[in-house]
Each structure stands twice: as C-alpha cells, then as structure tokens.
Amino acid sequence: VHIPIHDMQHVEDAHTHVTHMIMKDIQGRMEGESKLVQ
Fold first, then answer.
1. Which distant-in-sequence residues (6+ apart) come within 8 Å of 16 by Cβ?
2. What is the CA angle 25-29-34, rounded to 5?
3. How far is 31 from 37, CA to CA, in rounded Å?
4. Average confidence (pLDDT) over 4-33
C-alpha cells in the first residue's frame, strides 16, 4: 500500500501531539506527587 507523503506527515503530527500530551500528563503527575511529599 502506497501512502501519500502528506498523509504520512499528518500521522507524524498526530503521533507527536499524542506523545506531547502524555509527557505533559506524566510531568504534571510527578509535580503533583512532589508537592504531596513536601
């Protein structure tokens, strides 16, 4: 199956967005836990 370049770019953008959201979620939880510890 041949996937057009612009579709690949769209998938890449979506993957980057999801990864960024997960990283922010993990970072937020870690900061929240560090506040509980203090």
1. none
2. 150
3. 10
4. 88
DSSP 8-state class, residue 1: -
| DSSP-assigned letters across all residues of 2-34 | ---HHHHHHHHHHHHHHHHHHHHHHHHHHHHHH
Report the alpha-carbon angle 2-15-21, nearest 5: 170
pTM above threshold 0.70: no
Of all helices (H) and strands (E), which one includes residue 38? none
Check whether 19 has a pLDDT greater than 90. Answer: yes
